[in-house]
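Re: the request from the purification team.
They wanted to know what the chain is likely to look like in 3D before they choose a buffer screen. I agreed to run a prediction and write the result into the notebook, where they can find it.
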Amino acid sequence: MNLKQPLTVSEQLLKLKEHGLVVESDQEAKELLSRVSYYRLSGYGLQFRISASSSKYCAGTTLVQVLDSYLFDESLRSIFRIYLERIEIYARTNIATGFSLAKCREEPCDAHYHDANFYNKSGYDFIMNSLEREERHSQDSLFVQHHKKRYENRMPLWVMAELLSFSNLSKLYSAMYTSEQISIAKMMHTKPATLRNHLHCMSTFRNKCAHGARLYNSNFSFPAKLGKKYLQKNPGIKTSSLFSYVIVMLRRLPTVEYRKALVAEIVALLSEYADRIDPIFIGFPVNYLPLLWNETR
């Protein structure tokens, strides 16, 4: 089967109209399509289709309505990126410190370079291979040059951690022995199984936000670990929803101030779009407000 033929911006606009979308200004629509691809924009129109299998829009649906969903999602990602960065830095700090204090106190202080100190050796090897690529990509960085020259291309774990992607940082934690996982989890006020899950969730979340992936009207493939009691008390919450990932964010942020600030920004954005966006399309339950504020205590 042949792939679809590429379309010019004018042809893309015509296709939107053929699908029943109301376009008030052709010029503004063309300018939009030159900035945001037809494919990306169409994902924000799914809720306005007459059915899940149809490309036709419900009567009266406008391009402005689709654009509102897109702009809301853009603002939401912008909020999340700041707090995901804080979680990532917090995790880097505690994972590097916890392992180093447990394994790297005795000279030559390089236990993190030996797979004998890790339970999942294949996972550890994957991370170290990825690290070599990151070192090559960052060869102009002063701290990389310094450790190559002075320490025979070795570096303390707290330096190495700065080169690891959030995903590989998550894998590094999961590759450790239980004793180190427990120590680090205690430092981050949780349990190992929960932290393993949350690090994976947050690294996935961070990648989505960093690459402009759609959060609106979509789910995550990896379920978040929120606790049996919490889910029994709130049976309407789906662990693959954006709301569940937001709850994980709140639980992994290092300070109450950060948690309160995140909730305040989410609430403000939802208030700004109250007449245009239904929270159900980001997986938020009807009682999302008390649930969010409850996580800031």
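For the purification team: The radius of gyration is 23 Å.
Please add any questions underneath this entry.
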